Structures are given as C-alpha cells and as structure tokens.
C-alpha cells in the first residue's frame, strides 16, 4: 500500500555538490511528516517536463514552460534551513508516478524506493520496495512552482553542447554529432604585446 503523507505545505528541489558531482533531491513536508527523495538528474528533469505537460493540458495552454526569459531568471532552490535534519523518510527513488485528480483539482506524486541488495558471491541487484512507496498531494500552483524550481536546479550545472547535449567541462569536446567530419575549434585568447 505504501505511506501517504497527504497534503503538503512545502515542496521543492535542489542539488548538493559541485557541478559534475551533484546529487539531486526533491523535498516535501506536511502534517504527517517530511521526506527527502534522492533522484537522478534525468528523473528530476522528466518530472518537471511531466508537470509542465499536465499543466498545459489542464489550462488549455495557459500555463506553458518558458524556455527563454527576459529579465531575472529563476534561481535554483535550496532546502529551507528549518527543514528537519532527519526527515521522516529518506531514500533513493527507483520509480515515480504522477497523477491528477480532476474532481479534487490536485496532483498526486508517488515515489518508490530503490535498494541495492548484495549477497555474498552474487552480483548486486536493484530492488524496488513498492510497499515503502511514499505519496503526497499538492495543488496546481505548487506543481507550477516545482516545475520552475526543477528547471532552474537542472540548468544550474555544467553547460551543455548545443549539438549532442553532453556536459561541457572546459576541456576540448569531441562531439558525437559532428561525427569526426569537422575540426573542433578551440578559441584561445592572445595576450596583447606592449610595443
């Protein structure tokens, strides 16, 4: 059956660590407890895109993700300092499900823990703990704010190659989309000489 936290009053996402070494998490808190959900970057980004897609359908296109913004950009979120140091639940997410209840006008998010079991003489294996899944509900406004927050967290890392979307780390990049048919140029600044 799993664990139901019910309605939550705090929902957000952030990343811990330096770009290239970051770990991503979703955090939530309600009357029935708090949860920290560790996720892969792709899982978190997929959740954001799913929220955007559902919001666009519900509002007949009135709520859309804005990829290019003028003015101030949204800042990557941080877990509030008063969030419990030891949350009620904390785990690595193996699977997530997003639902929408039209009658109650709320979103339902369910996260299933992933555990790695290691037995002597055997290869490690991943196990989904469906009985320990944590779910909670939130409204459309929270969904929109979460999608924007996740987008800011994900984009705050290393820049991506515009062709292959691989992270760039400042060193020369062998882009797979160029397929070896183009020379990779690296711009170097020349020092001005005094005459």
List keywords for this structure.
alpha+beta, 7 strands, single chain, six-stranded mixed barrel, 195 residues, globular
Structure summarized in a few sentences:
The chain is an alpha+beta fold and 195 residues long. The protein contains two helices and seven strands. A six-stranded mixed barrel has the order 1-2-3-4-5-7.
Describe the structure.
This protein is α+β, with helices and mostly antiparallel strands and about 200 residues long. It has a single domain, classed as 2-Layer Sandwich (Secreted effector protein pipB2 fold). The chain contains two helices and seven strands; from the N terminus they run E-E-E-H-E-E-E-E-H. It has helices at about 40-60, 140-155; strands spanning about 5-15, 25-30, 35-40, 90-100, 105-115, 125-130, 135-140. It has a six-stranded mixed β-barrel. A hairpin with a 7-residue loop joins strand 5 and strand 6. Helix 1 packs antiparallel against helix 2. The model has no long low-confidence stretch (mean pLDDT about 85).
